[in-house]
Design brief:
This protein is of the alpha+beta class. It contains five helices and ten strands, in the order αααββββββββββαα. The strands form three sheets. A five-stranded mixed beta sheet has the order 3-2-1-5-8. A three-stranded mixed beta sheet has the order 4-10-9. The relative contact order is 0.13. The structure holds copper (II) ion (CU). Copper (II) ion binds next to loops. The site of copper (II) ion has 7 residues, from loops.
């Protein structure tokens, strides 16, 4: 009994620790790591899915019923009826009502996603053929994020999802993402955060997320952008405030946008 319990617990634990990326044979969504995604999942599971199942079962029942009840051997002389006002009004009105019932909560979620709360941190994601460039405009940080090839992967690094330079953000902070592209259309998408926005050259789209769990989250470019579209993943590492501060001080040196020395020369020169 203890053994079974142990196996059960380890399976549950194993799945929850891998919850931030797609799993083999997965059905449904990745686990939500933000309120936004929780809203989407509950809208899908509690409203859309029951409606879809009910409609499918009803239509299947009608088809089976018609096939049996009106088969040639039972019903050799078919009816010539072409119109029935009552039925026509019903099959127009009922789908309209169903759509309205679905639209109201769906607009609610959309508007909630559209309103950006007070921002703690702004980052900029730029899509290139075929990698992502990231910028922390307030921190003088800029870097590129390339996928790691399969042969260079280390243990526990997922294939096609691991990058060399991950985007690092603090946990429980509102992160605004400015999204654009440099060449063709791309899309910055992170399923666990419920985020997906097109990256359009010459235009800046914005979205936001607030990650509630520390961990590594994976997404992919979601707009067909050319031959290596499948090889420009998005990796976001959500860390604690302390870890973020530590990363920030390192990144400011490693990924400095304006060379620090140049600035100091300028300062010296102006003196
Ligand atoms: Cu793409």
């Amino acid at each position: 009994m203890k053994k079974i319990l142990f196996i059960l617990l380890t399976t549950i634990y194993a799945t929850s620790s891998l919850a931030d990326q797609p799993k083999q044979w997965q059905l449904g969504f990745q686990d939500a790591a933000s309120q936004s995604m929780r809203d989407i999942v509950s809208f899908h599971n509690n409203l859309l899915l029951p409606v879809i199942i009910a409609i499918s079962v009803f239509v299947l029942f009608l088809m089976i019923y018609t096939c049996i009840r009106f088969r040639a051997s039972k019903n050799p002389v078919p009816s010539k009826t072409t119109h029935n006002v009552a039925v026509e009004v019903l099959w127009t009105l009922i789908p309209c009502l169903i759509l309205i019932v679905m639209a109201v909560p769906s607009f609610k979620i959309l508007y909630k996603q559209d309103t950006i709360p007070k921002v703690d941190l702004t980052i900029k994601a730029v899509g290139y053929q075929w990698y992502w460039g990231y910028e922390y405009p307030d921190e003088n940080i800029i870097f590129e994020s390339y996928m790691i090839k399969e042969e260079d992967l280390k243990e526990n690094q997922p294939r096609l999802l691991t990058v060399d330079n991950e985007l690092v953000v603090p946990v429980n902070k509102v992160v605004k993402v400015l999204i654009t592209a440099n060449d063709v259309l791309h899309a910055w998408a992170l399923p666990s955060f419920g985020v997906k926005r097109d990256a359009v050259p010459g235009r800046i789209n914005e979205t936001w997320f607030k990650a509630e769990k520390v961990g590594t989250y994976y997404g992919q470019c979601s707009e067909l952008c050319g031959i290596q579209h499948a090889f420009m993943p998005i990796t976001v590492r959500v860390v604690t405030d302390e870890e973020y501060a530590e990363w920030l001080s390192e990144a400011k040196m490693k990924f400095a946008k304006e060379p620090i020395i140049k600035n100091e020369y300028k300062k010296l020169a102006s003196k």
